[in-house]
Amino acid sequence: MLSYQHAFHAGNHADILKHSVLIQLLESLNKKDKPYTFFDIHSGSGLYNLSDIRSQKTKEAEKGIIKFSKVSKNYENYPPALLNYYNFVSEYLKNQQYPGSPEIERCFMRTQDTLILSELHPSEIVNLRNNMKNNSRDENPSIQIHFRDGWEMLKALTPPKTSRGAVLIDPSYEESEDYSRAADTICLVNKKWSNAVIMLWYPLLAHRNNEIEQMLETIKQSVLNVNHNTQISNLQLVVNTKDSHKEVSLKDNAFVNDAPRLYGSGMLVINSPYMLEENALKSIEFLTNVFWKKTQ
Fold this sequence. Notes:
Blueprint: H1 13-29, E1 37-40, E2 47-49, H2 53-58, H3 60-63, H4 65-71, H5 80-93, E3 97-99, H6 101-108, E4 114-118, H7 122-134, E5 142-146, H8 150-157, E6 165-169, H9 177-192, E7 197-204, H10 209-226, E8 232-238, H11 250-253, E9 264-270, H12 276-291
Parallel strand pairs: 1-4, 1-6, 4-5, 6-7
Antiparallel strand pairs: 2-3, 7-9, 8-9
């Protein structure tokens, strides 16, 4: 949806789940010297200013990454996967910034790897190109940036020449069609590129529960029909009760009983690497203790 800008939500609890799992995946891929291709089909700007008026309007970063950073200075208590995430993000927080997934991918991927990004929002694509260019370094992967519909791009460019690879899909879900698009696209790509790791981020919204359940079930059944031994991980961070959500406009959201825009989020990981699920669950347990509403 072209009205959606992630700057309103950068650094919220959903980003912490998504990006901590993303870093685990990239570190797993990096264990082998062989190159890989990574697709990020809803890239956004890649880097966000937490002092931006959009971030200040929703205060989601304050309730998310900033709250998390203040919870405990005894980092030895962090699960290892979460500590790796925080050590990376904390360098950006010093400058009131938060790294989006393209920035994380750019930093963790290697010169022999290929990063393919797509973004359709006209101002976001400009920011993405500038951020990737301004923060470039000699050891960057090869980076391709497409001003293109991400769903269409992924279907057109897979499988890539390199057999190893992964995909991150995290649409805005502002349009109800995004749930069926995610399912249809993942089913098609998995059939063509069955060894790829495919990660789907999705919101937990009570009023969209049917669409979410149908999307997840469609994907799982299709993937298992291709290969019944495929490892599928469904990771969820729940920070409030289902009935805590009140569907209000973004304008009114901050003023209605502190109503959350979503009561949690999930990451569906197809061809989940060894130990990713176990490590992610430890992170989720820690994050739940940080973000769960104690008054519930």
